[in-house]
Amino acid sequence: MATTIKPGESYGFFTDTSICIGCKACEVACKEWNQLEGHDGKFLADSFDNTGQLDDQNWRHVKFIDNVPDQTVDAGNGKAWLMMSDVCKHCKHASCMDVCPTGAIIRTEFNTVFIQQDACNGCRNCIAACPYSVISINQKTGTAHKCTLCYDRLQGGLEPACSKACPTQSIQFGPLADLQKAADVRLAALHSQGVTQAELYGRDDKVYGGLNAFFLLMDKPEAYGLPNADNAGLPSRNNVGGYIGALVTAVLGVIAGIVAFRRRGTS
Amino acid sequence: MYLAAEHFVRAPGWTWYILGYFFFAGLSGGSYALATLLRLVGDARDEAAARIGFYVSFLTLLVCPVLLTADLGVWTRFWHMLVNVTPGDSSLNFTYGSPMSVGVWALFVFGLFTTVSALEAFVLDRRARSTSSDGPARPLGGVLGRGFNIAGGILALFFASYTGVLLSVSNQPIWSDTWMLGGLFLASGLSGSAALITLLTRYRADAVFSLGRLHEADGYFSILELVLLVAFFVTIAAAGTAGRTLPWLPLWVLALAGIGSSLVAARGHMRIRPSGGSAVIARAGTDTLVVSLLVLVGVLALRAAVIFSAQ
Questions:
Q1: What confidence category does residue A69 fall into, taking pLDDT thresholds of 50, 70 and 90?
Q2: Among positive and negative, which fits the CA dihedral A230, A234, A240, A241?
Q3: Which of A123, A146, A244, B120 is surrounded by the most beta carbons within 10 Å?
């Protein structure tokens, strides 16, 4: 999708997992552009996935979800790998931004979520908060790293490296409104073909107010390691309850202290 | 609030430095709060124990920024917690929705209170040693002094508890499945502080008067801690994450041993009646030493169990 990129407009990814072939071109393009060294090669003995997870060196990760039954229903009718090119979701209500104490995590002029490396101090509060296990600490810089949605490329009017490299257009980049329309069309097409399990994840506001990087999934979100709408809570949901618990304890503690220490006839 | 737990989050890798910070923050805040209570509602003879509390609060607080800074990947950037260094947006950093941000400011401001109070206690002790007078005038006396201690005491209670709230305000299993951690850490911090002040009365004869009262207070704090611990397990069991605590069973047992030992030590003192009171103890003996150490180990074990069970 050729796109003119303008500051002030929301951009994102629509990742259609139904046409992902697991080639990992996105991973390679991401590492190449962002000069990510990657980790030492490891054989994980788990499908064709030897990347393992999103982290400071893997800003794109193609998940291979082994959902193949022992016996197929009949020839050619068995389930297959679920493949999904995972990435930072650039949530509208981002948990990482919710808790960052330094102001290092900002929303850019393209409405994406970006960690300013010179402001981050490596406290790791964002790691504890991100429900998608996206962020991790870079051991060399001591700061938190994740996908920038190729912020530098967007500033130069270029689409992100991963979507540019995707050979099947499983990863589509563009203005969010356009992507949402395209996703709706694709979902309707799949449903009309009888693929009723297909669903959109993060297209609406049920998950973290909507995701700039949203997905078409071929199974429940949990199968892909994504929290469903019922479990997609911001860390700040526990602020009031946590402080009330502390306040009640403080009041009871003070009363206990007064009972124990009050002036009385002990001599 | 209590959803069937479904966590796909990465552990932040908060381990030994953070454990140490949580431990000393609990003791620092707890000691200041107890010292304030001893001074304001206690007998005049409780002043010696109150001063121990102010000293303990100051000394344990000194360790806190060192541990926090050591935990950071880029330790020279600790000040980024206080100042936003975003180009073009430089300002003080205060994010009320982030307990870590609020807590760092609390550490900073509480540090001023505990420094002044420890300094005042030092001046008073110096004066007492250099004159024969029993009651030298307090540098921060009167309404101003009481107000200062009360403000510091409120900050102290916050400082001892916010670390638990900080854990809850995340998406980590266990931590985010309960609202009890702030209260639990506070009750545990108060109990540990009472035990530590009790322990230190061995080195200050004029503070022995407060021993029974400290045991009594510790007993109440331990009951509170036990109730909160039960509530904690009920809430994480409802969320389906209680099973994660099992590998750390020895730590939970140590925490319970601390609570149990303080209850045993307090059993003769917890007589709540207008004319009654804590039994007077002649001196802190070996039993006090053992109980205090067990309670302190329990305070540390509780925090370790909470921190490691989720990661």
A1: low
A2: positive
A3: A123
Kindly state whether residue B150 falls inside one of the protein's structural domains. yes
How near does any CA of chain A get to the CA of B127, in Å?
Answer: 25
What is the average per-residue pLDDT within A99-115?
96
Partner-chain residue, chosen from B43, B98, B100, that has the shortest CB–CB distance to A263: B43
CATH number, domain at B76? 1.20.1630.10
If one counts the domains in chain B, the total is 1
Instruction: Report the alpha-carbon distance of residue B203 to residue B213 in Å, rounded.
Output: 17
CB contact under 8 A, A101 and B95: yes
**Three-class DSSP labels, B46-93:** HHHHHHHHHHHHHHHHHHHHHHHHHHCCCHHHHHHHCEECCCCCCEEC
Confirm whether B239 is domain-assigned. yes
Note whether residue B297 is domain-resident.
yes
The string of pLDDT tens digits covering residues B90-109 is 789 899 999 999 999 999 99
The pLDDT of residue B5 is: 59
Region of poorest pLDDT, from A126-135, A162-171, B198-207, B216-225 = B198-207
Among candidates B249, B256, B261, B257, which has minimal Cα distance to B305?
B249
Contact (CB<8Å) B1/A116:
no
Residue B274 lies in a domain: yes
Domain ranges of chain A: 11-233
Cβ contacts of A264 on chain B, cutoff 8 Å: 274-277
The CATH architecture of the domain made up of A11-233 is 2-Layer Sandwich (3.30)
Question: Under a CB-based contact definition with an 8 Å cutoff, are residues B186 and A249 in contact?
Answer: yes
Q: What is the mean pLDDT of chain B?
A: 90
Written as six digits, the tokens of A102 are 């330094």
DSSP B162: H
Helix, strand, coil percent values for chain B (each to nearest 5): 75, 0, 25
Give the C-alpha distances (Å, rounded to integers) separating B303 from B1, B57, B158: 23, 19, 17
Question: Which residues in chain A have Cβ-Cβ distances shorter than 8 Å to B272?
Answer: 259
Domain span at residue B98? 16-310
- Please check whether residue A163 is in contact with residue A171, taking contact to mean a CB–CB distance below 8 angstroms: yes
CB neighbour list of residue B1: distance below 8 Å, 6 or more residues apart = A237, A238, A241, B179
Q: How far apart are CA A14 and CA A178, in angstroms?
A: 10
Q: What is the ipTM of this complex?
A: 0.92
Q: Averaged over B72-96, what is the pLDDT?
A: 85
Per the CB < 8 Å rule, is A98 touching B98?
yes
**Which residues on B lie below 8 Å from A249 (Cβ)?**
161, 182-184, 186-187, 224, 228
Average predicted confidence (pLDDT) for chain A = 92
CB–CB of A179/A168 below 8 Å? no
Q: Which of B94, B98, B235 to probe by mutation at the A interface, max A CB count within 10 Å?
A: B98
